[in-house]
């Protein structure tokens, strides 16, 4: 199953033997458009890798409106809270289109890292690369929201 997925950045550095170590840990997942895959606050269980389709990452601040942080598509990963040890997902994921993915339980990925440290290192480094590019994008979006809020506050202050 996984050997046909070498085009996904997370797997590009893996050798055939390392794929065979990972393969039994993954399962296929698919859903129609507009499916809530998980909600912010749900238990963090799976890491997902998108094969086809796209999803939106949505975040609801405690005291604010729902924000769409970014859209993910083929080759992107989501649900990384399950891997970094967070007990709950920190955002919601909703499918924009019909979506096909593979997923792995975070606990099983950590078990793999303990049993096969070199394979685990490659996978976790690949995951870090995927996630770090997303945060650069989210950072710009959050800054734009803050700028908009500051502009509103300044306009309200001028009217007094």
Mean pLDDT: 82
**Residue share in helix:** 25-40%
Q: What's the level 1 CATH class?
A: Mainly Beta
Largest sheet: 4 strands, antiparallel
**What is the element string, with H for helices and E for strands?**
HEEEEEEHEEHH
Main sheet: strand order:
1-8-3-6
Could you name the ranges where pLDDT drops below 50 across 5 or more consecutive residues?
Answer: none
Radius of gyration: 18 Å
Q: Briefly note the structural class of the backbone.
A: alpha+beta
Number of helices: 4
Count of structural domains? 1
CATH architecture: Sandwich
Distance between the amino and carboxyl termini: 64 Å
| Shape, principal axes of CA atoms | globular
The CATH topology corresponds to Jelly Rolls
CATH H level: which superfamily? Jelly Rolls
Strand percentage, roughly? 25-35%
- How many beta-strand segments? 8
Task: For the structure shown, list the relevant keywords.
160 residues; alpha+beta; Jelly Rolls; four-stranded antiparallel sheet; 39% helix; 26% strand
What does this entry show, briefly?
It contains four helices and eight strands; from the N terminus they run αββββββαββαα. The protein is α+β, with helices and mostly antiparallel strands and 160 residues long. Helix 3 packs across helix 4.
Give a written overview of the molecule.
- By secondary structure, the protein is an alpha+beta fold.
- Helix content is 39%, strand content 26%.
- It has helices spanning 16-22, 81-84, 106-115, 117-158, and strands spanning 26-31, 36-38, 46-52, 54-59, 67-73, 77-78, 92-95, 99-105.
- It has a four-stranded antiparallel sheet with strand order 1-8-3-6.
């Amino acid at each position: 199953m996984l050997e046909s997925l070498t085009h996904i950045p997370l797997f590009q550095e893996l050798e055939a033997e390392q794929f065979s170590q990972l393969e039994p840990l993954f399962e296929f997942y698919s859903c129609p458009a507009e499916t809530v895959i998980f909600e912010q606050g749900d238990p963090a269980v799976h890491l997902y890798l998108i094969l086809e389709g796209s999803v939106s990452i949505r975040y609801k601040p405690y005291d604010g409106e729902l924000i769409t942080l970014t859209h993910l598509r083929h080759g992107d990963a989501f649900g990384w809270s399950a891997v970094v040890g967070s007990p709950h997902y920190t955002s919601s994921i909703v499918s924009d289109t019909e979506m096909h993915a593979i997923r792995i339980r975070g606990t099983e990925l950590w078990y793999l890292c303990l049993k096969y440290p070199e394979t685990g290192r490659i996978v976790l480094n690949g995951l870090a690369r995927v996630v770090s590019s997303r945060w650069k994008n989210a950072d710009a979006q959050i800054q734009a929201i803050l700028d908009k809020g500051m502009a509103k506050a300044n306009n309200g202050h001028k009217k007094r």
